[in-house]
Amino acid sequence: MATRIRQKAEKRAKTKDVRPFAKARYIRMSPSKVRIVLDLVRGKDAQMACAILENMTNSAAATSLKVLKSAIANAENNKGLVKDNLFVAEAFVTPGPVLKRITQKAKGQGSRILKRTSHITIVLDEKK
């Protein structure tokens, strides 16, 4: 039995993704708004993506820029990669927990307000 567990662990280590990445979790922003911004930078060079995000007025662009700069720093410091050879391989957002609130309505009723959160992930890769 221990042999099988060891084989599984070795297989997991072999197939593990070693590309540099950064995550921002529990961002108080709707995932649909963040997704619009990340669609623009996916597949672009890292420096070009930084330039695009710096010049956007969307509120999600500032947070996405922080995550991108963190991923670039992780690539340089932890993986020893050169900044000029990097591009955004993956950029995606997943929904986080939803804060549920209630607002008052007529005749003693209430309606629900959903305050959504996001988890932003940016994965970089080196150009071949």
Provide an overview of this structure:
The model has no long low-confidence stretch (mean pLDDT 94). The longest helix is centred in the middle third of the chain and has 19 residues, at 59-77. The protein is built from four helices and five strands, in the order αβαααββββ. The protein has a three-stranded antiparallel beta sheet. A two-stranded antiparallel sheet has the order 3-4. With 128 residues, it is of the alpha+beta class. The relative contact order is 0.23. A hairpin with a 5-residue loop joins strand 3 (99-104) and strand 4 (110-115).
Can I get a quick summary?
The chain has 128 residues and is an alpha+beta fold.
Rounded average pLDDT: 94
Number of strands: 5
Poorly predicted sequence stretches spanning 5 or more consecutive residues: none
Shape: flat
SSE order, one letter for each helix or strand: HEHHHEEEE
Q: Major sheet: order of its strands?
A: 1-5-2
Rg measurement, Å: 19 Å
Strand content: 25-35%
Secondary structure elements and pairings:
Layout: H1 2-15, E1 21-27, H2 31-41, H3 46-54, H4 59-77, E2 86-95, E3 99-104, E4 110-115, E5 118-126
Antiparallel strand pairs: 1-5, 2-5, 3-4
For this entry, give a set of tags.
single chain; 128 residues; alpha+beta; 3-stranded antiparallel beta sheet; two-stranded antiparallel sheet; 4 helices; 5 strands
